[in-house]
Design brief:
376 residues, Methylamine Dehydrogenase, Chain H, four-stranded antiparallel β-sheet
Length: 376
């Protein structure tokens, strides 16, 4: 069902700004490189540029959901200011040289990887458990969330059982993989190298596509499409027939791509508004085909995109630190976080769409709880 964005709530003239009453926010003293939610949907992990990982529970004792009140006479919803202090996140020791690769563990918490080859399980409480001390460098890491890990090393991607790290299958590639992604059903793995993308069904032969990039790979929720940013734009691969759309009219190279199941669309950063295309009319022949103009155009570039898991809404983070939410294909948008001069570097929804996690270049991390009343 299509929904619209409600007017910002509560009114800034009556209560603090929207972000202040909805968010828990922390300064972590290192840029946030990525954010991952655990398989159980209870913990967010922020990978920091200095190799540490910050862990924060999604459950909040003083959540905005508990502080909301609906006035009986007018039906107007308000949220009282937070009364309890925000608990600090758990910070691990440095687990990597630079930002750690993070993936949800199929056992507990998260799996952390370092370019020097170390792998650890990180529990939601910050306990560190070594999975391997192999010194061979790794270049990418992915988890199917069900107990299998894909690990890319020089010239080979291997599939392992997380428990015991038994090697199950291997795929030889020309050079190291820069990105890995499991299909939604977990039966296949996309492996992206400098010059090609391999669609691999472990135990069977792989299919090679002349596509490349260095950003993350993304499957659509239904598993019918694959996309990644590369060069000055991004490519979109329809898996049923191998047809490719290449989109390159961006002000800056896209740093993120996201699929929306609810809107049946794909979105990318790198423009002065949310750029998107309908998958019902894919832009195979012309970039204008199926184009969705979402949100309002501005003077600051969109740096990060995250599609809501259930609604036709897209969160966007700007180069100046502002964050908003737009409705797919509509000008409606809701300002969520004000600009502070520090670029948004990570943006992720929780699986149930209740929480939006935000990370910035100056080391701010936040979890925003969004009551359903914000969306009509």
């Amino acid at each position: 069902m299509t929904q619209t964005l409600a007017p910002p709530m509560p009114s800034p003239s009556v209560q603090p700004a929207l972000f202040d009453v909805l968010a828990r926010s922390w300064r972590l003293d290192a840029p946030v490189a990525s954010i991952v939610m655990d398989r159980k949907g209870k913990t967010a992990a922020f990978a920091l540029a200095d190799g540490r990982v910050a862990l924060a529970p999604l459950e909040d004792p003083d959540s905005a959901l508990k502080r909301m009140r609906v006035e009986a006479d007018t039906g107007r919803s308000t949220i009282r200011p937070r009364e309890k202090p925000v608990a600090a996140p758990v910070l691990t020791e440095p687990l990597a040289e630079g930002a750690a690769f993070l993936a949800p563990s199929g056992v507990l918490g998260f799996v952390s990887g370092s370019r020097d080859g170390r792998l650890h399980r990180v529990t939601p409480r910050g306990q560190i458990i070594a999975l391997t001390r192999k010194s061979e460098p790794l270049s990418a890491l992915a988890s199917d969330g069900q107990g299998r890990l894909a690990i890319a090393r020089d010239g080979q991607t291997s599939l392992h059982a997380e428990e015991g790290m038994e090697r199950l299958f291997g795929l030889l590639t020309p050079g190291s993989a820069h990105a890995l992604a499991f299909a939604p059903d977990g039966q296949s793995l996309a492996v992206m190298t400098e010059h090609a993308v391999f669609l691999w069904h472990p135990g069977h032969r792989s299919a090679r596509h002349a596509l490349a990039g260095r950003q993350a790979l993304h499957f659509s929720p239904d598993g019918h499409w694959l996309a990644a940013a590369g060069g000055d734009g991004f490519w979109l691969l329809r898996l049923s027939d191998g047809r490719v759309a290449r989109l390159g009219r961006f002000r800056a190279a896209p740093a993120s791509v996201a699929f929306s199941g609810a809107a049946n669309a794909v979105f990318a950063s790198g423009a002065f508004r949310v750029a998107g295309w309908s998958l019902a009319a894919p832009p195979f022949d012309d970039e204008a085909d199926g184009a969705l103009r979402s949100g309002k155009p501005g003077l600051v570039l969109v740096e990060r995109i995250a599609a809501h898991p259930a609604r036709d809404l897209v969160a966007f983070g700007m180069a100046d630190g502002a964050v908003g939410i737009a409705q797919a294909g509509r000008a409606d948008e809701m300002a969520l976080r004000h600009a502070d001069g520090s670029s948004i570097t990570a943006l992720t929804w929780s699986a149930d769409g209740t929480h939006l996690a935000i990370g910035t270049a100056q080391g701010d991390a936040a979890l925003v709880t969004l009551p359903p009343q914000l969306f009509k």
